[in-house]
Design brief:
236 residues; alpha/beta; five-stranded mixed beta barrel; 27% strand; Nucleoside_phosphorylase_sf; Nucleoside_phosphorylase_d; transferase; DeoD-type; purine-nucleoside phosphorylase activity
């Protein structure tokens, strides 16, 4: 147990999905898991373990932003022995070719966060996904006929930029596909502790074209994304 998690040793499967929203963690457990069991409710950051296609899997809400996610990921790896972590979330689009409902598989994650910056001496560390998880997610998205893009994601500590799109500077010109708030910290910790990690996001609103997803499409798209992530996690 930790100050943030009252799960016991063995309560988590070796593969864990990481939505930010606690209610989305609850929805994933109740919608997809067989025999779902609540294993953590500290601060209402809910965690569950169950089975998917006969294999053990867990889901743990990570909260909003990299500092919050870093706490849960550090403890899942070092206290609970988790080996595979897959963030499932939504993101904003920074490239017009990415349409609403498309998946972005974050091959790499740029960031403005001090969680990554300044911690590697003279070097800028490049946080990247586990290749096997990335390849598996791309394959499963293709099998389901889902549109996806694999490439660079921005993990920003700022949600509301005072300068609007100008706050993203040259990143869209360099092929960054979308913006969210967690992937870079996830990949950095996975690299530090030698485990596997991947971020899969559904693009729900494009900052370039101003397209937005409606409530019904959002729910359908999240269901498709979670099924891909679960299939990847249990094969992981």
């Amino acid at each position: 147990m930790t100050p943030h998690n009252h799960a016991k040793a063995g309560d988590y499967a070796e593969a864990v999905l990481l939505p930010g929203d606690p209610l989305r963690a609850k929805w994933i457990a109740e919608t997809f898991f067989d025999d779902a069991k609540l294993v953590n409710s500290v601060r209402n950051c809910l965690g569950y373990t169950g089975t998917w296609k006969g294999k053990s899997v867990s889901v743990q809400a990570s909260g909003m932003g990299q500092p919050s996610l870093a706490i849960y990921v550090h403890e899942l790896i070092n206290v609970y022995g988790v080996k595979t972590l897959i963030r499932v979330g939504t993101c904003g689009g920074l490239n017009a070719k990415v349409k609403v409902r498309d998946l972005i598989l974050a091959q790499g994650a740029s960031t403005d966060s001090s969680i990554v910056k300044g911690r590697f001496g003279a070097f800028n560390f490049a946080p990247i996904a586990d290749f096997e998880l990335l390849r598996s997610a791309a394959s499963k998205a293709e099998e389901k006929g889902m549109r996806y893009h694999a490439g660079n994601m921005l993990s920003s500590d700022i949600f509301y930029h005072a300068d609007g799109m100008a706050g993203y500077d040259k990143l869209p010109e360099h092929g960054v596909l979308g913006v969210e708030m967690e992937a870079a910290a996830l990949y950095t910790l996975a690299a530090r502790f030698g485990v596997k990690a991947l971020t899969i996001c559904t693009m729900t609103d494009c900052l370039i074209t101003k397209e937005e997803i409606d409530a019904e499409q959002r729910q359908t798209s999240l269901r498709d994304m979670v099924e891909v992530a679960l299939d990847v996690a249990v094969e992981g």
